[in-house]
Design goal:
By secondary structure, the protein is of the alpha/beta class. The chain has a single domain, classed as TIM Barrel (Alpha-Beta Barrel). Helices cover 37% and strands 12% of the residues. It has twelve helices and eight strands. The protein has an eight-stranded parallel sheet. It is globular and about 55 Å long.
């Protein structure tokens, strides 16, 4: 597979998988021959544990934010704070921890925030204008008309639609070029394609992050008991594989691809990195470099 356009991957676990990226990024810098020449790392996204503005998935990252910020600055990779809580109220905007994260990550430049709340959008644009903003998939923009309307909003540099719009090619192919550049497609979602409760699931996480007394969301997926399996995700009708990227999306102007996985283990994240970034003949070498480092707990 070859293409003249580069794919930019947006990777999960900014805080959760700091130790994995601390080992992986030096390989990305010094062994570029191991990696597909048509792709690069565009950003790494996430939120630390107990983050009021967090959403989508509960944050479990315990890495020191300064260490995280310094690592991505060193490698010239954009850090994205996942502040995708869609249920924020005015009182939440003064949260000390989230504002401290904004002050830390805004200064290096070229960092972003993933958002689902228009209230937070206004706040960030006023107090932290150095960030670029990403419209979160937690909005569940399942209707193409709603997605297209989101793309027209100038405050967003990127918009992540619901994964069930990934293969609506009749509509995607006719988008104007300036909108295609803003589209960020979620590649490896394992959620049940017919799920009617996706928004309710995200709202339940948002409420928990706010400390609200709410019941756990009960997933209605027939495979929910299995948990996330990459092999299941590959069978999902919304899945985007590397052949799709090279043969369909890149030639038609789409270059931004999001990999999910913030709540998963680092061993599974490594499998995503191997599949999407590493040439098959070098995947074992990367596994050995990572697994044989005794300082990293992969499970």
């Amino acid at each position: 597979m070859s293409t003249t356009r580069k794919a930019r991957y947006h990777l999960p676990g900014l805080f959760e998988f700091y130790e994995l990226y601390r080992l992986f990024l030096p390989l990305y810098r010094t062994h570029r021959a191991y990696f597909y020449d048509w792709c690069e790392i565009g950003s790494i996204y996430g939120a630390p544990a107990d983050c009021l503005w967090g959403g989508g998935r509960a944050g479990f990252g315990e890495a020191d934010p300064k260490d995280v910020c310094d690592l991505l600055t060193e490698y010239g990779i954009s850090a994205r704070l996942t502040f995708s809580n869609g249920l924020l109220r005015e009182v939440h905007l003064s949260d000390t921890k989230c504002n401290a994260l904004c002050r830390l990550f805004e200064h290096p430049g070229d960092n972003g925030v993933i958002v689902a709340s228009d209230l937070l959008v206004s706040y960030l644009r006023e107090y932290y204008p150095g960030f670029y903003l990403v419209s979160s998939t937690t909005k569940v923009l399942r209707e193409f008309a709603d997605f297209r309307a989101e793309l027209t909003r100038p405050e967003f540099s990127y918009v992540v639609p619901d994964f069930r719009l990934n293969h609506t090619m009749d509509e995607l192919l006719v988008l104007p070029e300036q909108y295609k550049r803003k589209v960020e497609l979620l590649c490896n979602e394992c959620c049940w394609y017919e799920c009617p409760d996706r928004k309710a699931c995200y709202d339940a996480v948002s409420l928990k992050n706010l400390g609200e007394d709410t019941k756990d969301h009960v997933c209605v997926s027939p495979t929910s008991a299995r948990g996330y399996r990459f092999s299941d995700a590959m069978q999902n009708p919304g899945f985007i594989g590397i052949r799709d990227i090279c043969e369909t999306y890149l030639p038609h102007g789409y270059s931004e691809f999001k990999i999910e996985g913030r709540s998963l283990g680092s061993a599974l994240i490594l499998e995503f990195l191997l599949y999407y970034l590493i040439k098959p003949e070098w995947q074992l070498r990367i596994r050995e470099e990572i697994y044989l480092d005794s300082s990293l707990d992969l499970f």
